[in-house]
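Blinded run. Sample ID left blank on purpose so nobody reads anything into the name before looking at the predicted structure. Input follows.
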Amino acid sequence: MTRDEARALLASMTQSASLLRHMRTVELVMEAYAPQYGESPDEWAIAGLLHDADYEPFPEEHPKVIVGKLREQGLEKIAHAISAHYTKWNVPYDTTLDKALLACDEITGFIVASAQVRPDGISTLETKSVIKKLKDKSFAAKVDREEVYKGAELLGVDLATHITFIIGVLQANKAELGI
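Blinded prediction complete.
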């Protein structure tokens, strides 16, 4: 699957601007991380882009619909990673892609939320501010903190280093993302 094909699939399933932006942010972070693990930036980007593609039209079946579509196309590695991007689904983490998608999903959304409440957006956001906000359960309350911590642990990255990396990726794309 090419990225253009992935974008077309996403457009056929998702209309929500905020959800599309979330998936784009995860796509960018995953693409940036892939070379550090000797992996394909395109494959990792597509996993990030499509991980929530079926959430809006099929919230009760998420992620089964998108996983099924990817499996039909023979994209088992991406499909498995998407099926595992929430620990409570009890899907094993077999590859670095599986672990990276879990590690990048919730925290990327949290970092975007942190940037949105700042006058300068992502431009001046610091890692210590994100870590402080993670401790405030009322801020971005829908973000599952357990997933944030477990994702970093499974990927084998220090949480602060992970956050710093993601902030850097988002800062480099702030104009496109509107943050």
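Unblinding after everyone has recorded impressions. The first helix runs from residue 3 to 13.
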